[in-house]
Design a protein that fits this description.
Elements: H1 3-14, E1 22-24, H2 33-40, E2 41-42, E3 45-61, E4 66-80, H3 87-103, E5 114-115, E6 119-128, E7 131-147
Parallel strand pairs: 1-3
Antiparallel strand pairs: 2-3, 3-4, 4-7, 5-7, 6-7
Length: 149
Amino acid sequence: MTLAEIRLKLCELLNTITELGKVWHYRRWTIHLDEIIELYRAGDVINAWEISVSGDSEVDISYPKTGVVTYEFRLFGYYSLVDKDATEIEFEKIVEKIKDTIRANRTLGGKAWTVEPATREVFEPRIFVDILVHYCEILIPVKVYKLVS
């Protein structure tokens, strides 16, 4: 139940959702703008998700020398915005599928003690490398036991 294992399990779960284009277990970066578009393109559209850890907290519990660590995983989603195609509605459906998938996997296949409900924190249009896209951030708190020395 390491941080890396949890991150990979989240990526594996998200990759079961066919509507998601590309999913990475880390934030993608490049210094060349033309390369970044290709990283996020799935077919003819921008459709990609990244997984990152935005914070953590730890609480000691008395028995048996155990602590609980809560990792705040954050998903960053990008989706092509085409007003005439009502892509906002399609992107909302994708976000709900992500939340449903997390809800159905509350221990991440035994990699976590528990996974709190996913929360959509940001959902808005943004400029992404000169392209108007839908942008979303989803917070997923994941709790794991840790031995306290």
